[in-house]
Amino acid sequence: MKGFPPDLQKRIIEALNNKGANKACPRCGHGMFGLVNKYHVASLQDSHEGLVFQGDGLPTVIVNCQNCGWLAHHALYLLLPDLRPPEKPEGGALPGGGS
Ligand SMILES: [Zn+2]
Q1: Which end of the chain has fewer CB atoms within 10 angstroms, the N or the C?
Q2: Number of domains into which the chain is organized
Q3: Looking at the predicted structure, is the pLDDT value of residue 26 above 90?
Q4: Structural domain boundaries enclosing 63
């Protein structure tokens, strides 16, 4: 599988730096992070009665500490709002979200 194109990787790193998300690792204090070169999608659900393996997801980018491996997730659409897809006609309601 391919990773981020170089121009997107550069935009993500610039966005993290512009927002000040470039501090030392909160676990070990190491200063070097790497960008995991693929999106992660966190599953969103509104039911507390069990796991739901369908519905919306929140795309994130992950940076990892190069010393201890600590992971930080950043919501993609807050870093790069232009990548957010258009709003759904229903106003963004979660599919199967109940009444
Ligand atoms: Zn660390």
Answers
A1: C
A2: 1
A3: yes
A4: 6-83
